[in-house]
Specification:
heterodimer, A: about 130 residues, B: about 210 residues, mainly alpha, 7 helices
Amino acid sequence: MSAASHDAHHAHDDHEHGEGGAHGTLKDYVIGFVLAVILTAIPFWLVMADVLPSHQMTAVAVMGLAAIQVIVHMIYFLHMNSRSEGGWTMLALVFTLIVVVITLAGSLWVMHNLDTHMMAPMPHEMREVP
Amino acid sequence: MAHAQTLTEADDTRFYTTEEHHPENGTLLGFWIYLMSDCLIFAVLFACYAVLGRNYAAGPSGADLFDLPIVAVNTALLLFSSITYGFAMISAQAKKVKPTLAWLAVTGLLGLGFLSLELYEFNHLIHEGAGPQRSAFLSSFFVLVGTHGLHVTFGTIWLVTLMVQVAKRGLGVEMKRRLMCLSMFWHFLDVIWIGVFSFVYLLGVLK
């Protein structure tokens, strides 16, 4: 009885791995890699060749491309989709993203506010401090 | 017989639905949740760098220190190691031991290349007097990039361990599960590196 159930379990495992919902194909990896190379090369080129007129625009472009590249990696390398593990991986990811956004935005907001109220010396003033 | 009877009795006392959906593979979901918690560690370090990254204490700034060609090579090494690990996974799916080991070895070498370049960079910075104790900017820089480097180090050790196991035991179900976990870990480190090279290096050089 026990051996039979063990065998059944084993077969089930094999089946799972054969089916491979979470495994990528060669095509997936190659598409992901090509997209990642393009999305890496553009920001390096933007910064190193100083293409855009203002630094602000370059910064926005670099962060935007980074966000797109993270999504590309998630889809093509980590094989994320809303169905894997019955949606639990996606749920964990969404929860993490919410906490990450609160942490980043909250820290920046609070610390910026604190800086303004403390009237911290500006960087150019700091350089003149003995 | 007695065993069967206990089972039926146990069935009668169940008060949850047996049809409830279980995640198909608990290990992978658990490992994913570990990665998400690791993601929070990096989020906190990124937040730290975002707050302190401009506090130079009259010392050198990112524009003075960072060498973009080195960072570009590092990025390329990590990206190539991601796709070679993908090839190792495809070979493992096809139950081919030799190609799996070869691709894992290539991945490991690329990881080692990344680590040695990073150590060279850190060593160079410290010898220039731009060590972690120089300013808040450099402290947060070393902690963030160092933590990522430490992850790559442990990933490489894990990779060598798995190579030995694959060579000894072949590609069974549990070995594929282990390779899958390391695959997630390795690709996850590449995702974190996207944040590092964009936010720390490229934006650091910009201003």
